[in-house]
Structure to design on (641 residues):
């Protein structure tokens, strides 16, 4: 039997374990990326390991999230990252240079290599045929220290693309179609591997859009072949030397196949409050929109921005809708400027932001009360934009620009104008002067907001305490610990950020949790979906959370809980979820001993209800040791010693 492309790349990096779905494997890491919101903690963790320099052949620190500088904190963090990166042999991309995923796609991707990034959208590099996986900051700092990353071997699902997209229908609509079919947890434990004759009709940028938002399905990552289109892109980046062709064997077998006829893909839109709540644009067309944004974390590439510029060159809006453009990188901005795209936007009333993720995570440009906001972003959970009860819709740039022109949600095919075909440039404007190579001898800048790392003690023999909160299905890490202009600058200050745990869901949580001396969280299915932010585990750990019992977990958050020494347990029978209430007193007796012995089923006593129920886990040997030692940092330090 032949190998899928994902299997080929994994096989070439396999250090330990067998490539059987579900079994634990350890892979060699070629590259790591961190961004500022996750990077400060990742570097504090790296520092605590006492390793003089990073192991992988290329590590880079980006600054793209915390760019709103309303006091000293964010710039202090930028300077900390600049100097500590230099100390440990890590490249540094300065604020203003661009969003990690875009700059990485432009300057550093290498087909066939393995990238681990402290951001859930790291699979953007799927477009350049890498295995690129999003992980918590501590997992990435361990990869920086050891050159290794451990995960469960995913099942490889084939996504077969045939034919080609019709005018106004885009790569964003392709990934929204995938989400419409498999929803926000359908990719869990899987890699989505794209193949088939339709692949060659998509550029690297378009493939990257699909890889980026593959994260929203819960997939470990996505991957595309490396072909002539990849070669063209690398040539435009003057990086021909980094190109190699790659594809699956012709007799590769996939766990299952999702077929997408590109010619049948139509403009789609994800409605509030989930990237999985996908509908045809025509179903919601006519809804008045007072804010439109193109760019930020998804769809801020050259093609994405030029298409809107070309439309607006010939057709002017009423100027009544607020319009924001957030380019992915300085390179995109400069290339767009060279090709007259910027002028078109300025004339059309766009507010042009610096290249950043900002608005995607509520760092500025929050919508007003009851405002309908159409954005090309990847996520729209309630409140993520910074406004309570916001109404954020996720669409392609084509749908966004059509909406801007009409002032209401509009299927771009109904504009009745010619589709401006965007040809990718033969050459981008390349300028790497804002990327700094590591250099020894810089003193590490540590602002007052950077607090000492907290490390948990070994697992208690028996866990007991109250249910501090009970939540439903699909709770995202934004629900657990929001981002936003007020909270994001506290990422290197755990005591301060912990005051915001479940801020939008239940603002009394931190106080109550501390008063109760910690306890348990009860969750539904897909608990912890979304971002890689390990703060959504570290902050609950700081407040005394001992275990989360849920119907099922999202991959990255589950690892982050284990890494923070919090037990993620699943209900053996989901019926038991209904029988628990907040404030119930729970106990898991002799849990440490049982974990040591390899138990996979545990008895939980609900003392309040006078009943017992069972919970399960699939912990590997390694995860058991991590939990027993109180987290991955303790475990890694001991391994290194
Ligand atoms: C996101 O899109 O949710 C973020 C903000 O980029 C996060 C990272 C973070 O919270 O720092 C992610 O996707 O991992």
């Amino acid at each position: 039997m032949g190998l899928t492309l994902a299997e080929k790349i994994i096989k070439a990096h396999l250090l330990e374990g067998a490539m059987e779905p579900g079994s634990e494997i350890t892979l060699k890491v070629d590259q790591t990326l961190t961004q500022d919101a996750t990077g400060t903690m990742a570097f504090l963790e790296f520092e605590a390991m006492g390793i003089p320099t990073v192991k992988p052949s290329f590590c880079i620190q980006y600054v793209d999230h915390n760019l709103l500088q309303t006091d000293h904190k964010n710039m202090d963090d930028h300077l900390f990252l600049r100097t500590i990166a230099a100390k440990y042999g890590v490249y540094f991309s300065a604020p203003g240079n661009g969003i990690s995923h875009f700059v990485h796609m432009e300057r550093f991707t290498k087909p066939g290599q393995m990238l681990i990034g402290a951001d859930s959208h790291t699979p953007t590099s799927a477009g350049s045929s890498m295995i690129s996986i999003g992980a918590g900051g501590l997992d990435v700092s361990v990869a920086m220290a050891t050159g290794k990353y451990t995960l469960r071997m995913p099942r490889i699902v084939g996504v077969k693309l045939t034919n080609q997209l019709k005018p106004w229908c885009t790569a964003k609509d392709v990934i929204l179609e995938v989400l419409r079919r498999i929803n926000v947890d359908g990719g869990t434990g899987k890699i989505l591997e794209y193949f088939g004759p339709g692949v060659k009709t998509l550029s690297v940028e378009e493939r990257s859009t699909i890889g980026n938002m593959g994260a929203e399905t819960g997939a470990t990552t996505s991957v595309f072949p490396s072909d002539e289109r990849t070669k063209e892109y690398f040539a435009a980046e003057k990086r021909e030397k980094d190109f190699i062709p790659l594809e699956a064997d012709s007799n590769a077998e996939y766990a299952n196949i999702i077929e997408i006829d590109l010619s049948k893909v139509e403009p789609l839109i994800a409605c509030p409050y989930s990237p999985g709540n996908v509908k045809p644009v025509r179903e919601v067309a006519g809804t008045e929109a007072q804010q439109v944004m193109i760019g930020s974390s998804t769809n801020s590439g050259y093609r994405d921005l030029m298409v809107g510029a070309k439309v607006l060159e010939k057709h002017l809006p009423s100027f009544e809708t607020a319009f924001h453009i957030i380019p992915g990188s300085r390179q995109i901005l400069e290339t767009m400027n060279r090709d007259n795209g910027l002028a078109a936007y300025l004339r059309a009333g766009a507010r042009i932001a610096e290249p950043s993720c900002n608005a995607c995570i509520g760092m500025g440009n929050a919508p007003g009360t009851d405002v309908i906001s159409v954005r090309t972003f990847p996520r729209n959970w309630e409140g993520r934009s910074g406004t309570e009860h916001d109404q954020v819709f996720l669409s392609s740039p084509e749908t966004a620009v059509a909406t801007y022109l009409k002032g209401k949600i509009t299927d771009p095919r109904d504009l009745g104008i010619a589709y401006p075909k965007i040809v990718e440039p033969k050459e981008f404007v390349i300028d790497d002067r804002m990327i700094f190579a590591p250099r020894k001898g810089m003193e590490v800048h540590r602002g007052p907001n950077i607090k000492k790392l907290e490390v948990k003690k070994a697992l208690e023999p028996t866990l007991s305490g109250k249910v501090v909160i009970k939540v439903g299905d699909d709770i995202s890490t934004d629900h657990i610990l929001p981002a936003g202009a007020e909270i994001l600058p506290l990422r290197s200050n755990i005591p301060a950020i912990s005051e915001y745990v479940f801020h939008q869901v239940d603002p009394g949580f931190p106080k109550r949790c501390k008063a109760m001396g910690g306890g348990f969280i009860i969750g539904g299915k897909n608990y912890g979906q979304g971002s890689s932010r390990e703060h959504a585990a570290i902050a609950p750990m700081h407040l005394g959370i001992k275990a989360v019992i849920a119907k099922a977990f999202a991959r990255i958050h589950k690892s982050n809980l284990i890494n923070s020494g919090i037990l993620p347990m699943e209900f053996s029978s989901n019926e038991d979820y209904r029988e628990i209430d907040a404030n119930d007193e729970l106990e898991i007796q002799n849990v440490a001993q049982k974990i040591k012995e390899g138990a996979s089923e545990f008895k939980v006593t609900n003392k309040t209800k006078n009943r017992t129920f069972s919970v399960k886990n699939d912990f590997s040997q390694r995860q058991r040791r991590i939990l027993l030692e109180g987290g991955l940092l303790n475990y890694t330090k001991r391994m290194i010693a």
In short: The pocket of alpha-methylisocitric acid is lined by residues 37-38, 65, 119-121, 134, 297, 357, 360-361, 379, 483, 530-533 (CB under 6 Å). The longest helix spans residues 72-88. The longest strand covers residues 155-162. The chain has 22 helices and 27 strands.
